[in-house]
Write a structure and sequence with these properties.
Elements lengths: L3 E3 L22 H9 L5 E3 H4 L3 E3 L5 E10 L6 E7 L10 E5 L3 E2 L7 E3 L3 H4 L16 H10 L24 E2 H4 L3 E4 L5 E10 L4 E10 L7 E6 L3 E4 L4 E4 L11 E3 L9 H12 L22 H4 L7 H7 L20 E14 L7 E8 L7 E7 H4 L11 E11 L2 E11 L2 E4 L14 H4 L2
Length: about 450
């Protein structure tokens, strides 16, 4: 069974803010977690993955990737459709391999499967004419089980009357690469040139767009976080809810001169720029969200004197979550502990001069009669995450004990529910949502 490590969407790998949760897969989970800790992302161009050779765990070739099945809203890449002969337009045998069963190294290199060739021969055949079935949850569970991968369809829409997920709406990567892009004012249009897949999350994190109508950008390409788009399947387009003139200064690179997609600063700059967009994707952030800090204010705050810290704290409650405030100083690494328990409720709390935060009320297994509050982080951050936590979930919490407003609490560094672990802070208490501002906040 795979254990998934969810690093919230402040980072690509471990460094960049995005809206989706990042996963590291079980067989290589520890290695990927270590890479993330060292700011190593695992980004690949989807166009380069098409036709990539697939090898079994012993290095013997078993086929090649003809297609990827992608959820365009969350960016989740569910399956690689692998041909063992012929091509995707017909001929040969095809099978749908859960992406979690594949290990990617670098563009152009073979992809490694987690089983051997003999076992792979028994894999179920995928009917290339029945694409709609690739998102069927019952079929997906059986498919994942064959490869020893746990199937998790909880984040997807498409439920029956009982609330059970029945179908995941997936698109072909080859078709997504032909989708159009429109902006809010529609004066600027564009085309999807490529998608950037993060192996540590099994998700598409960025869209590479060839825009038309941007000043002095005829030969440039823009890397835009997927979270900023709304997918319109009927029109086969991605809608970017951002003022057209904001794109004039957006990070871009020359056509044919791709940046290192695993380079920390480039990804941080891209995400930081779009985090300053007051009108993020409407289905995730309708209009201006008062509970989300405006990154455009960063330059104005750089020259704040220490004497004005209290005034700034009072006037910027959202931004205080990324500052070295009294609340943040509550974290004491010497008081780290691990607690197993049951989720009772999800509640909000509010440190002094902070915007609301999200906490979990849990009942520890070691003390059934006493409830404990586990502080996660700012609501403006968690409102854009896809982690689902429900009452009665069994949970393991790691964090530092602290006294908050006279009551004992845990400032969580990570929480584990089932086979998923969400990382919130490092062992020194530095939260994942402040990476972009860490250098300034720790000055």
């Amino acid at each position: 069974m795979k254990r998934r490590v969810l690093v919230p969407t402040v980072l690509l790998g471990a460094c960049v803010a995005t809206p989706s949760l990042l996963f590291a897969q079980s067989d290589t989970g520890k290695a990927k977690a270590n890479e993330n800790a060292n700011n190593q992302t695992r980004a690949f161009r989807v166009s380069k993955l098409m036709d990539a050779q697939v090898q079994d765990q012993n290095g013997e070739q078993v086929g090649e990737i003809d297609e990827l099945a992608i959820h365009p809203d969350s960016g989740k890449v569910m399956y690689a459709i692998v041909s063992t002969g012929g091509n995707f337009s017909g001929g040969g045998k095809h099978t749908a391999i859960p992406v979690g069963a594949l290990k990617f190294t670098k563009d152009g290199d073979p992809v490694r499967l987690n089983i051997d060739k003999n076992r792979f021969k028994d894999a179920g055949e995928f009917d290339i004419a029945g694409w709609d079935n690739v998102g069927d949850v019952r079929w997906g569970r059986i498919n994942h089980q064959f490869y020893g991968i746990e199937f998790d369809g909880s984040e997807y829409k498409g439920r029956n009357d009982s609330g059970e997920v029945t179908k995941v709406p997936l698109e072909r990567a080859s078709e997504l690469l032909e989708w159009d892009v429109i902006t809010r004012e529609r004066k600027i249009t564009g085309e999807v040139e490529d998608l950037v897949f993060d192996d540590s999350s099994d998700r598409v994190e960025f869209v590479v767009v060839d825009f038309e109508g941007i000043q002095n950008a005829d030969n440039k390409r823009h890397l835009v976080p997927l979270r900023e788009f709304r997918a319109d399947r009927n029109e086969k387009q991605l809608a970017l809810n951002i003022a057209d003139n904001r794109l004039n200064d957006a990070p871009a690179f020359e056509e044919g001169k791709w940046p290192d997609l695993n380079q920390r600063q480039w990804n941080r700059d891209v995400v930081a720029y779009y985090r300053g967009n007051e009108n993020a994707a409407p289905d995730r952030n309708p209009g201006k969200n008062p509970n989300r800090p405006n990154r455009d204010d960063d330059d104005d705050d750089k020259d704040d004197d220490d004497d004005n810290e209290n005034e700034a704290s009072a006037s910027n409650p959202e931004r205080n979550w990324v500052r070295a405030t009294e609340y943040r100083r509550l974290f004491d690494a010497s008081k780290m502990r691990t607690i197993n328990g049951t989720v009772i409720d999800r509640v909000r709390f509010e440190p002094e001069n902070h915007s609301p935060g999200i906490a979990l009320k849990i009942k520890p297994d070691s003390n059934q009669d006493r409830e404990l509050l586990v502080h996660l982080g700012p609501a403006w951050f968690f409102d854009h995450q896809q982690l689902q936590i429900v009452n009665n979930d069994k949970i393991t919490v790691k964090g530092a004990r602290a006294d908050f407003q006279g009551d004992p609490v845990i400032l969580a560094t990570e929480i584990t529910i089932g086979n998923r672990t969400m990382v919130l802070r490092d062992n020194e208490g530095n939260p994942v949502w402040d990476v972009v501002n860490r250098d300034r906040d720790n000055r």
